[in-house]
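Exercise 7.
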Amino acid sequence: MLPVQQRINEAVEVVRAAWQAVDSQADRLPEIILTTGSGLGILVESVFPRVFEMSYGDIPHLRASRVVGHAGRLVIGHYGGADGPKVAVLDGRIHGYEGHDPLTQVLPFLIANELCGGARLAIFTNAAGAINESYATGDLMIIKDHLNFTGESLLTFNEAADFGGSNLDMTFAYTARYREMLKKKSYESFRVHEGVYLGVKGAMFETPAEIRAFRHWGADAVGMSTVHEVTAASRLDIDVVGISVITNMAAGIGAHKLTHQEVLENTIHAAGELALLIADLM
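Solution. The predicted structure, written as tokens, is:
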């Protein structure tokens, strides 16, 4: 496999040429990378005007997502209108349960960061199941820390020398000043928590016994993404905000079976509230 930086460079060359062909202000680089979780592609509607769009499948070394609710495209535009900051939106993810290693999963983020010339902020959103029984479907959770239960590490020592290969302090992975900024805001129509996210590989939902164990470990919500991307951002010294949409109560808490369709429906319902929270970060 090609070295990481070579893959990034080859992808950026293709994307930048296509972007410059349609955007007269392509020299004004995005400041922020926004990654959308399952069913949260509707967040792209907050980006206008959109100056560029490209499918992952058309970008060298990227894989198209095969998961419903993940469009798999890069969108560049202004968040909240022409006067808003320029953002690079990763609309949909590539997941570990699709058979991809952590480095392949974070490659869209690494390419977007190179296009930005080094982003100042990365916002990662996801759909998550509530482990904390005081949470409810439709709530939002600001991530203050995470537990990596995927069984994999992004920064293994046998990766290409230009990414990974050394120890990384994750104490401050989720930037405190942005978390404090959001906690000071008041939202009347929805509830915002701060909690710990636990990332699993999936694709199966967790068992009730696993959820009981995760609760004992201090997890408030569980999902199938985010932890590797946050590690990549931390490696690159980028400020990070993580926000989970609580789409369901985790296994064993409710009385019905969990489905991906339920996750998608509930993320769509909460997307408007999430867009407001993100706007307060801009």
